[in-house]
């Protein structure tokens, strides 16, 4: 694209299922409906993989140690995860997405970006398209979804979280800059607790505060994230929805507010990371041969351990076994652990090809399709 040419205006939807794992369990077991449940872990050990909204009102969250969750909610019910069921439900949901566009970029089993700039089903607006998708998910799958509609990926994703659960939020082009300015700094991608503290020390608390800074200032203090922060604070994001983007690796990590020191704590925390990464692997229908474990200690020293196998890892059990074996090579730890990460690489993707190039070109010229 000619850099001096005007950028086309996209219509992007971000769909995020509401408490996906927990909602599937409540759908399939009437005895769990309306009750606080945690998927994963147990009353004595482990980590919560997902919490129902009833549990969230007590402060129960994913990645929380089970014993802490039980302390917060004495009536909490623990449910064993059923990943095969979640994957099947996710495939049903993605089939609904593809009725409206070939440009679907899954982020995990329970969320995805959709570029609906081409009104393939002659719906008339991106907002109505999102409403139809949410309605069809509920009617056909029995679950609720929240959606954000906007002209770029950043705003669509933030919008999908605005009216959860079972909500819709639309941010139109003339609203984007003001919306981004009103966001807390923590709502910008990559701004975790530590970065938020550094921002606060610099007097940056909101998108408006970020927008007031020069790009040079942001580069000085936030390095590679500077350009993203500069643009996002102005409501700008030029990334395309990429259904077939090639990945060299798929991974995930968690930073803990309290350092993990004991072997059992680390083993339990690893279960959550395994689940997080495997969901992303399944969403991409990718397989790989190399698993890498990353550990960052309380003094910020970092180590990695990796293991490669001859054939692709094609099951959660196989992935989990290698991850736990890698962790055992570093146990016991001499100092606290503040971050754990896992990555699968040497990927062989089985994504089916889609004819995305032509619809994308058409999509960006359809000005009659409104928000």
What this model shows, in words?
Mg(2+) binds at residues 16, 110. Residues 12-192 form the UmuC domain. The structure is a single chain. Helix content is 36%, strand content 22%. It is of the alpha+beta class.
Strand numbers in spatial order across the main sheet: 5-6-1-7-8
Percent strand equals: 15-25%
Query: What order do the SSEs take from the amino end to the carboxyl end, as H and E?
Result: EHEEHHEHEEHEHEHHHHHEHEEHEEH
Report the uncertain regions: 350-367
Radius of gyration over all CA atoms, rounded: 21 Å
Q: Fraction of residues in helices? A: 25-40%
Mean pLDDT: 87
Question: First CA to last CA: what distance?
Answer: 24 Å
Question: How many β-strands, per DSSP?
Answer: 13
How many DSSP H or I helices? 14
Q: Please identify which CATH superfamily of one domain we are dealing with.
A: DNA polymerase, Y-family, little finger domain
Q: What's the level 1 CATH class of one domain?
A: Alpha Beta
The largest sheet, given as strand count, sense and whether it forms a barrel, is:
5 strands, mixed
What structural class do the secondary elements suggest? alpha+beta
Pfam family, one: IMS_C
GO molecular function: damaged DNA binding; DNA-directed DNA polymerase activity; magnesium ion binding
Subunit structure: Monomer.
Family: Belongs to the DNA polymerase type-Y family.
């Amino acid at each position: 694209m000619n850099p001096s040419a005007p950028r086309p205006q996209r219509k992007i939807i971000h769909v995020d299922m509401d408490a996906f794992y927990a909602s599937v369990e409540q759908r399939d077991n009437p005895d769990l409906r309306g009750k606080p449940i945690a998927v994963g872990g147990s009353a004595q050990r482990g980590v919560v993989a997902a919490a129902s909204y009833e549990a969230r009102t007590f402060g129960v969250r994913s990645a929380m140690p089970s014993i802490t969750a039980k302390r917060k909610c004495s009536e909490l019910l623990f449910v064993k995860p059923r990943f095969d069921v979640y994957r099947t439900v996710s495939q049903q949901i993605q089939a609904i997405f593809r009725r409206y566009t070939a440009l679907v970029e899954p982020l995990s089993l329970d969320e995805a970006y959709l570029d609906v700039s081409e009104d393939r089903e002659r719906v008339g607006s991106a907002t109505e398209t999102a409403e139809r998708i949410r309605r069809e998910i509920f009617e056909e799958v029995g679950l609720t979804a929240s959606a954000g509609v906007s002209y770029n990926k950043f705003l669509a994703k933030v919008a999908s979280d605005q009216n959860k659960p079972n909500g819709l939020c639309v941010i139109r082009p003339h609203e984007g800059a003001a919306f981004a300015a009103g966001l807390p700094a923590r709502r910008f991608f990559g701004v975790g607790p530590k970065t938020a503290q550094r921002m606060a020390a610099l007097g940056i608390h909101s998108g408006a505060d970020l927008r007031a800074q020069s790009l040079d200032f942001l580069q000085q203090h936030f390095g590679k994230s500077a350009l993203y922060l500069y643009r996002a604070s102005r409501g700008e994001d030029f990334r395309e929805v990429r259904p077939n983007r090639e990945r060299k690796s798929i991974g995930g990590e968690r930073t803990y507010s309290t350092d993990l020191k004991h072997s059992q704590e680390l083993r339990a925390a690893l279960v959550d990371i395994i689940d997080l990464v495997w969901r992303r692997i399944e969403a991409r229908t990718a397989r790989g041969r190399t698993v890498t474990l990353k550990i960052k200690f309380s003094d910020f020293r970092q180590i990695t351990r990796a293991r490669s196998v001859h054939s692709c890892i094609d099951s959660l059990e196989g992935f989990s076994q290698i991850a736990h074996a890698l962790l055992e090579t570093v146990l016991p730890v001499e100092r606290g652990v503040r971050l754990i990460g896992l990555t699968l690489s040497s990927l062989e993707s089985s994504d089916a090809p889609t004819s995305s190039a032509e619809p994308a070109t058409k999509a960006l010229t359809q000005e009659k399709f409104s928000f």
